[in-house]
Design goal:
It is built from 15 helices and 22 strands. The chain is an alpha/beta fold. The radius of gyration is 24 Å and the shape is globular. The mean pLDDT is about 95. Bound molecules: 1-O-alpha-D-glucopyranosyl-D-fructose and calcium ion. The site of 1-O-alpha-D-glucopyranosyl-D-fructose (TEU) has 11 residues, from loops.
Length: about 550
């Protein structure tokens, strides 16, 4: 029943709040998406991953769901959604919905009910007595991913509930079989409405260690070893696969902090019947220490991490992404200071990822080279940034300037500025003042301008994706790094049944010498893709120009 179509798919991520506003209230919505379906099709992508559009009070922009079977008012109606999915399917684009089931909103009916100790819903969540004399200390030392303790006290019942994210995102109790059945039912509800798969939000957090023991103190998270890929994780996902995913020609991708090349086989191999693929985040940590403190990007380290995924058996499908709605923009994050070569740098990054053995994801705006934004303190909208700033103001105001510096590199807000469609008002995103500031560089960086130029980054994405499509060597080929230790060049060879691709990318804004590897022999060679007009037609030792990116067929 499963065609595993995702092995030859490129997926485009939409963060609906920031993509396109269809009704002029300053907030992106489903009608806005519908109006851009031809644009999405024109990119040559195969599927869309849509960040949550379900009913939500928006404490965390839709990642706090109050009704899993309906659409958020600000985004439209279920009928709009149906029109959207039909519009996608008629264009040959599949739809991956976001599945946020580690937690719900505190405004979900289950949680409202569960505040009552005698309710049958009490056990849908993780309620505990506090520590200390009168239970006024949280049950353990876990901290929320959004700053502060992971527990909130409820006066009414005199107990605490667990929330690994905001206090408006109480964690569901997956130990309760009823909860697990609810989740399967939700998935099947959307499958029956036609969706093609799910991106499973923080799915590796669902199983908490028995007795919820204290964690070891470590910065910036405390105790995460007690809920990341917990004791029943595999059991629960296998069960969900049986009850739902395996019954449809679906694809799943887990947001899977804690799944590494060492344990990936047990999580995604085709034989295990759990998730089809996962996002891992190690390569996103290369330019940060402990995920927070900015550090220098090291290409050799980055390649080493990605290579380990590439060497997994062919029955384990890796993913590759440079951006998502939680990450700063990839320019200049991975390319260094690009000066006036922004688009060339974007092409280099794109080339490096599109020809790996992986399902690539493109985040909205990446295809036109949108960049981080020079936010002032009051511009931050994300709960994570806002909480961090408030905490530092309270605890150690002296650190505020440093915190601001970190946020300018790290904040999730960078990915969430409105999509830059035109050089006109509000970047063509909306006719009203957008919910979040537009990056002032929209006059130079926008879709309208990119469409006009044949050599734009946008058109390079189209060329690269068209070339990639359906190629066995890209889908199935072996992957071998060339010059793995080089800190300037990302080069690799793909090989499948006698066909080879040689991908050479200069990651730097400087000229770099490239030598044909000594042990490489070839009779024929043809240039397949390049971001310079006059790249040599055949592979040779050469001086690579700034951000030069080349694919040869051998
Ligand atoms: O993200 C999980 C998560 O751990 C991030 O919030 C992480 O803290 C961030 O990437 C900084 O490194 C998922 C969603 O992608 C995110 O948008 C949600 O806020 C979060 O879960 C809660 O649902
Ligand atoms: Ca709107």
């Amino acid at each position: 029943m499963k065609t595993r179509w995702y092995k030859d798919a490129v997926i485009y991520q939409i963060y609906p709040r920031s993509f396109c506003d269809g009704n002029g209230d300053g907030i992106g919505d489903i009608r806005g998406i519908i109006s851009k379906l031809d644009y999405i099709k024109s990119l040559g992508v195969d599927a869309v991953w849509l960040s949550p559009v379900y009913k939500s009070p928006n404490d965390d922009n839709g990642y706090d769901i109050s009704d899993y079977r309906d659409i958020m008012d600000e985004f439209g109606t279920l009928d709009d959604w149906k029109e959207m999915i039909d519009g996608m399917h008629s264009r040959g684009i599949r739809l991956i919905m976001d599945l946020v089931v580690n937690h719900t909103s505190d405004e979900h009916a289950w949680f409202v009910e569960s505040k009552n100790k005698d309710s049958e819903y009490r056990d849908y969540y993780i309620w505990q007595k506090g520590r200390g004399k009168n239970g006024k200390k949280p049950p353990n030392n876990w901290t929320s991913n959004f700053v502060g303790p992971a527990w909130e006290y409820d006066e009414q019942s005199g107990e605490w509930y667990l929330h690994l994210f905001s206090k408006k995102q109480p964690d569901l109790n997956w130990e309760n079989p009823k909860v697990r059945q609810e989740v399967a039912d939700i998935c099947n509800y959307w499958f029956d409405l036609g969706v093609d798969g799910f991106r499973c939000d923080v799915i590796t957090y669902i199983s908490k260690k028995d007795g919820l023991p204290n964690g070891k103190l470590k910065f910036p998270l405390i105790g995460d070893e007690n809920y990341i890929v917990g004791p029943n994780y595999h059991k629960y996902i296998h069960e969900l696969n049986e009850r739902s995913f395996s019954r449809y020609d679906s694809m799943t991708v887990g947001e899977s902090i804690g799944i590494t090349p060492d344990n990936a086989f047990d999580a995604i191999d085709e034989s295990v019947g759990e998730l089809d693929t996962v996002f891992s985040f190690d390569h996103m940590g290369v330019d940060f220490k402990m995920n927070v403190i900015p550090a220098k990007f090291n290409l050799a380290k980055y390649k080493k991490i990605l290579n380990r995924w590439q060497q997994l058996p062919k029955t384990c499908q890796p993913t590759i992404f440079l951006e998502n709605h939680d990450q700063p923009r990839c320019l200049p994050r991975f390319s260094g200071d690009y000066g006036d070569r922004r688009e060339l740098a974007g092409m280099a990054l794109a080339t490096s990822m599109f020809f790996m053995r992986a399902t690539p994801y493109i985040y909205q705006g990446q295809e036109i080279g949108m960049t981080n934004c020079d936010f002032k303190q009051e511009d931050y909208k994300d709960i994570m940034s806002v909480n961090a700033l408030n905490m530092i103001k309270k605890v150690c105001p002296l650190l505020l300037p440093y915190a601001r510096k970190v946020l300018l590199k790290r904040a999730r807000d960078h990915a969430r500025t409105p999509m830059q469609w035109t050089a006109g008002d509000n970047a063509g995103f909306s006719t009203a003042k957008p919910w979040m500031m537009v990056n002032p560089n929209y006059k130079e960086i926008n879709v309208e301008d990119s469409e006009k130029r044949n050599d734009s980054l946008l058109n390079f994405y189209r060329k690269a994706l068209a070339y990639r499509k359906g190629k066995d060597v890209v889908i199935n080929g072996d992957f071998k790094l060339v010059y793995p230790k080089s800190k300037d060049i990302f080069a690799y060879i793909r090989e499948y049944e006698g066909k080879r691709l040689f991908v050479i990318v200069n990651f730097k804004n400087k000229q770099v010498n490239f030598k044909i590897p000594k042990d490489l022999t070839f009779d024929n060679c043809a240039l397949a893709l390049s971001n310079y007009a006059d790249t040599p037609q055949t592979l040779q030792s050469m001086k690579l120009r700034e951000y030069e990116a080349i694919v040869y067929e051998l």
